[in-house]
Design a protein that fits this description.
Elements lengths: L5 H10 L5 E6 L4 E5 L5 E13 L8 E5 L3 E4 L5 E15 L1
Antiparallel strand pairs: 1-6, 2-6, 3-4, 3-5, 3-6
Organism: Pseudomassariella vexata
InterPro entries: RmlC-like_jellyroll (IPR014710), RmlC_Cupin_sf (IPR011051)
Protein name: Cupin 2 conserved barrel domain-containing protein
Length: 94
């Protein structure tokens, strides 16, 4: 299966109804401490992997996502993110 282009991935995220769409790359082992966003966000992973946890949930668990996975985070939901050892590229929709 041929890999999609950046433009094709971004068009896919736009088709889900997100107005602001961009591609972001994190370096290996990057970490985002607990934070939240004012609106719903989505992340479509195109390279590498990320692990996410929701520390304010009743029973927080870490879950790892890889290429092709879509991760939605509801507005105001506190989350923490760890990037895999090979880094991670993903399309963000806001």
């Amino acid at each position: 299966m041929p890999e999609k282009s950046r433009e094709e991935y971004e068009a896919e995220v736009r088709s889900w109804g997100f107005k602001t769409v961009f591609t972001w790359t994190d370096s290996s082992n990057a970490h985002y401490s607990p934070h939240s966003h004012s609106g719903l966000t989505t992340h479509l992973i195109t390279r590498g992997q990320l692990t996410i946890s929701y520390p304010e949930d009743a029973h927080p668990e870490k879950r790892t996502y890889t290429v092709g996975d879509r991760v939605d985070v509801n507005a105001g939901r506190v989350h923490e993110v760890w990037i895999g050892s090979e880094g991670c590229t993903y399309v963000i929709g806001e």
